[in-house]
Write a structure and sequence with these properties.
By secondary structure, the chain is α/β, with parallel strands linked by helices. The protein contains eight helices and seven strands. The strands form two sheets. Strands 3-2-1-4-5 form a five-stranded mixed beta sheet, with helices on both faces. The chain has a two-stranded parallel sheet with strand order 6-7.
Length: about 240
């Protein structure tokens, strides 16, 4: 190759963006920070996820994926969204620990009433601009309500996310008076209105004691690409529900 042409080719390669990084899963964790969630509950949710990412079973699920890694970000949603922990490639106990620690540091920055449609679309946007190429893409949506008070409708946002090939899974957080899977209950609404896409499922946090276990179970299912036996996985003791 002529020297001038070689130099031009090398310059073009240097100027081009780096190749997208292959990983098994791009996972957006959308956690409720709306007006029904107080400061102690914000902290409790973050601690539950931090505990899960430090769990040997979750780390084993990550390292046993086809690529041996996942990319994850933790975002709180309300009337706005706020990134708590930015995209992190987790491929070991050390990188999992780094992500877990990052969850506990930033102050709360999401406030106001529910804008679920906007939150789902922002989760999709974060995947589209992250320059990470994941084999699977999942938005994990958690909250204690399925009401939408502003922005695009849930149905419109859900359809757009699913059309992009992204799965939406749900973690409803039940309040003491919530009828669960009964008509109008939060589990039923999550199943019919929020989740969607290939292999979508709901794992429920029935009370404060079960929250960390629900998070762990949900993460292992998402990371491994498996589905629970039922599309809606109920907890064991609905009579003992208490606020988060």
């Amino acid at each position: 190759m002529r020297p001038v042409l070689l130099a031009v080719c090398l310059a073009a390669l240097a100027a081009s963006p780096a190749a997208a990084q292959d990983t098994d899963l791009e996972l957006v964790l959308l956690a409720d920070a709306s007006g029904s969630i107080d400061a102690s509950e914000i902290a409790f949710q973050r601690q539950g996820y931090a505990q899960a990412f430090r769990d040997p079973d979750v780390i084993a699920a990550i390292t046993n994926t086809a690529y041996g890694s996942i990319a994850v970000t933790y975002v709180e949603w309300a009337a706005n969204t706020a990134t708590v922990a930015d995209w992190t490639l987790i491929d070991s106990a050390d990188t999992a620990e780094g992500f877990a620690a990052a969850l506990l540091e930033p102050p709360r920055q999401a406030y106001g009433r529910n804008a679920i449609g906007s939150a789902l679309l922002d989760g999709l946007r974060l995947m589209e601009v992250n320059e990470i190429d994941g084999w699977r893409r999942v938005i994990d949506f958690s909250g204690d309500s399925a009401n939408n008070w502003g922005g695009p409708s849930i149905a419109e946002a859900r359809a757009q996310v699913i059309a992009a090939g992204v799965t939406i899974n749900g973690l409803p957080i039940l309040r003491p008076d919530d009828p669960g899977r009964a008509q109008g209950g939060l589990e039923a609404r999550y199943e019919s209105e929020i989740i969607g896409g290939l292999g979508a499922f709901v794992v429920t946090a029935e009370n404060r004691d079960s929250f960390a276990d629900a998070v762990k179970r949900k993460l292992i299912l998402e990371i491994s690409g498996k589905m629970p036996e039922a599309r809606v996985a109920q907890g064991a003791n609905p009579a003992r529900r208490s606020p988060l």
